[in-house]
């Protein structure tokens, strides 16, 4: 089906200053997207899974079947369908290549974990609504989970933000018996990896890292629309969004990210998990539609900001592919800016169930590592240690 997506001319340009700025971004990017053939759900589901095209050195451990079990079990507590009114199968892509295993019960929750959420680009510009899993974290805290969010610069590169993460984590009193789990959304995942490499002492306290729609491999859009982004970034009021080091866009180019991954081995003691996202037009927010359309020329599987294959940490356990755009998988942009977040498909992604499922999967991996005699001694990663992490992750998925 070929369709020209309209610029948002019919959407009123009013509201907070940041909303007007984001609308300007939409209007400037829309003419670049032109007309393309829009993929259908059936077409996307028939393609090989994005991770199957990765180089062997970046291969992931396929944990999709187990994560699907956990996520569906969490949703089933709400009845036949999840809280958003859609069955479990409607939220996670099943690409037909998952290896099914026997059904297992939900893992036991581990509320001793210190969970720290790290937001993505422009998060501080949106306040609380820019923080990943904001409402979901509130509910889980009420259930006894220990969840906090670190605030990082919304317009800076990962080196700058890694220092901010280090400063804030250093303020958390060391608790030797309590694991530290870092969950990074979008560019926040990159900031976490930078933090791990640059701060081995603090990194020794980290047991697991989860990337949710992480910008691990960068985005073609960082270079393709760099001029537009630079113009818009210069126009943001500093009172709402401090400029930081102004390296946001440069740090997200595909070339910069691939060079960083090649030159910065990750700590081997950390367990890594990735949840990627991609979807079709009905679930793409209005403000993401032009970029989603532009990215179709690179890969049909994208979330309106990133290609699905670029959202995976090398050697990580792949939790799955969410059927969601880049915002709905983690943040409530539509709450504060409904004209930007409006989607033809009105059902919100069940983020509370998603975050709880992620933490249950991490808890299960921790229990498996403990039984296997794993430890938390920091060591620099190498190709061989990546293989070691993959072997341990594969054992995690089989053990329970």
Characteristic key phrases:
400 residues, alpha/beta, Rossmann fold, seven-stranded parallel β-sheet, two-stranded antiparallel sheet, 40% helix, globular
Just give the CATH class: Alpha Beta
Order of helices and strands: EHEHEHEHHEHEHHEHHHHEHEHHHH
Total beta-strand segments: 9
CATH topology: Rossmann fold
Low-pLDDT windows of residues: 1-21, 376-385, 388-392
> Any idea what the shape is?
globular
CATH superfamily, by name, is: Alpha/Beta hydrolase fold, catalytic domain
**Mean of residue pLDDT?**
82
Helix amount: 40-55%
In CATH, the architecture is 3-Layer(aba) Sandwich
State which percent range the strand residues make up.
5-15%
Radius of gyration: 20 Å
List the domain count as a whole number: 1
Distance between the termini: 44 Å
Strand order of the largest sheet: 3-9-8-7-6-4-5
Query: What is the count of DSSP helices, taking H or I runs of 4+ residues?
Result: 17
Main sheet properties: 7 strands, parallel
Oligomer: single chain
């Amino acid at each position: 089906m070929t369709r020209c997506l309209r610029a948002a001319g019919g959407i009123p340009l009013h509201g907070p200053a940041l909303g007007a700025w984001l609308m300007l971004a939409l209007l400037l990017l829309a003419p670049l997207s032109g007309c393309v053939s829009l993929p259908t759900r059936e077409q996307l589901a028939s393609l090989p899974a994005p991770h199957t095209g990765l180089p062997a050195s970046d291969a992931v451990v396929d944990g999709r079947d187990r994560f699907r079990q956990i996520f569906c079990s969490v949703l089933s507590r709400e009845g036949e369908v999840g809280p958003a009114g859609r069955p479990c199968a409607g939220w996670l892509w099943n690409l037909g290549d998952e290896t099914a295993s026997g059904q297992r019960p939900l893992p036991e929750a581990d509320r001793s974990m210190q969970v720290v959420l790290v937001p993505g680009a422009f998060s501080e510009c949106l306040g609380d609504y820019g923080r990943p899993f904001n409402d979901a974290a509130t509910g889980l805290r009420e259930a006894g989970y220990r969840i906090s969010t670190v605030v990082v610069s919304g317009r800076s590169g990962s080196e700058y933000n890694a220092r901010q993460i280090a400063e804030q984590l250093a303020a958390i009193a060391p608790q030797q018996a309590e694991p530290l789990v870092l969950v990074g959304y979008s560019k926040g995942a990159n900031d976490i990896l930078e933090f791990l490499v640059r701060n081995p002492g603090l990194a020794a306290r980290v047991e697991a890292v989860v990337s949710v729609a992480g910008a691990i491999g960068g985005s073609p859009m960082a270079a393709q629309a760099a001029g537009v982004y630079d113009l818009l970034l210069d126009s943001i009021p500093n009172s709402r969004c401090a400029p930081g080091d102004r390296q946001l866009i440069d740090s997200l180019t595909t070339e910069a990210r691939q060079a960083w991954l090649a030159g910065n081995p990750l700590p081997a003691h950390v367990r890594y998990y990735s949840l990627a996202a991609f979807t079709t037009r009905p679930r793409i927010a209005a403000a993401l539609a032009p970029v989603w359309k532009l990215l179709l020329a690179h890969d049909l599987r994208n979330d309106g900001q990133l290609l699905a294959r670029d959202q995976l940490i090398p050697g990580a356990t792949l939790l799955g592919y969410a059927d969601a755009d880049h915002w709905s998988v983690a943040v409530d942009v539509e709450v504060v800016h409904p004209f930007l977040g409006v989607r033809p498909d009105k059902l919100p992604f069940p983020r509370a169930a998603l975050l709880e499922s992620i933490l249950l999967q991490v808890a299960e991996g921790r229990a498996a590592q403990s039984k296997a005699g794993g430890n938390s001694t920091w060591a620099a990663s190498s190709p061989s240690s990546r293989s070691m992490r993959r072997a341990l992750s594969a054992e995690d998925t089989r053990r329970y």
